Predict the structure.
Amino acid sequence: MKEYVERSYRLLHRQQDLVFFQIAIKETDLDIGIAHDKLTAGLVDGVKQEIIKIRSQLEQYITADHTFYHTLEPYTPGPGAPEIARIMARAAATAGIGPMSAVAGAIAQHMGLYLARRCREVIVENGGDIYMRSERKRKIGVFAGSSPFTNRLALEIESHRMPLGICTSSGTVGHSLSLGHADAVVIMAPSAALADAVATAAANQVQNEDDLQTAVEFAMSINSVTGALAIKNDQLAAAGAIKLAPA
């Protein structure tokens, strides 16, 4: 899909009071927003080195534990696993699926926490999965492929709900594995790794519009998930702390 390839969906989480910069290393492609006065060459270089470090830890572990990478079932990493792998595995097991379902959210969260030690306002987006920390209300647009809701709906998020993970899975947009056909399932949770895994698991359940409510109810049954939104064509279902607003 052209809109996905060009990543124009990134305009849906951009905030006018923040400056955004991009760093792409292999499959990790981050769009990062911070306050203008925090953007320095040193900070950007630090972010780049941290991504390289966390990716290297994960890549080395995957090389030694192929099951971790390939399984679609809950999996307990071995004793030598780095913390990023353990976070992914715990989040995915909670959702009932394999660890790699949480990789984008886990990396977004890791980098968000890294930046939060230096910046009060932080948005880190990684392939449609977002970690956000802010002291003000934010609006995040919803991208749902060819659904008429794309570019028309946004999530309004109050500051007291942050830091927050806002992660999206789709069976019709992007390259990530999905066993369903949802245009978008958006999950909110304090952990972006968990939000990512639950979004994947919930989206797997959507074959048509009749499955939207079931997917949302499944997501909300998982402890610490605070909101769920599922979209297929011109239908949607939502539950929890989802506050919809015009994009």
Q: What stands out?
A: The radius of gyration is 17 Å. The first helix runs from residue 2 to 5.
